[in-house]
């Protein structure tokens, strides 16, 4: 693909946090106002959510030969502390497994 277009196949960490549902998210421009028509179009093509920061993070990770874990929480929803604790625990386990347990 080349330096400017890194391969992103398999970029997401997908074997961790197995209890979280998987969704197909569409990337949108930052600070864009997503209308109901936009959401309908996203859904028409199989999208279940939209976000503005997962795609740039994915591209940076691909250039660095790293994987990412994207967790989308709707803007109008406050994540329960138990979920945040589970996420932090899983991320710690991932970090330990990739750094040789250090």
What string gives the helices and strands in order? EHEHH
Instruction: Report the oligomer.
Output: single chain
Q: Give the integer mean of the pLDDT values.
A: 79
How many beta-strand elements?
Answer: 2
Helix content: 25-40%
Shape: globular
**What is the CA-CA span between the terminal residues?**
34 Å
Strand neighbour order, sheet with most strands: 1-2
Biggest sheet details: 2 strands, parallel
Strand content is 5-15%
Helix/strand class: mainly alpha
Count of runs of 4 or more consecutive helical residues? 3
> Low-confidence runs (pLDDT<50, min 5 residues)?
none
Report the radius of gyration as a whole number of Å.
Answer: 16 Å
Describe the SSE topology.
Elements: E1 25-27, H1 36-44, E2 49-51, H2 54-63, H3 81-98
Question: How would you portray this structure in words?
Answer:
The chain has a two-stranded parallel sheet with strand order 1-2. The protein is mainly alpha-helical. The protein is globular, with a radius of gyration of 16 Å. It has three helices and two strands. It has helices spanning 36-44, 54-63, 81-98; strands at 25-27, 49-51.
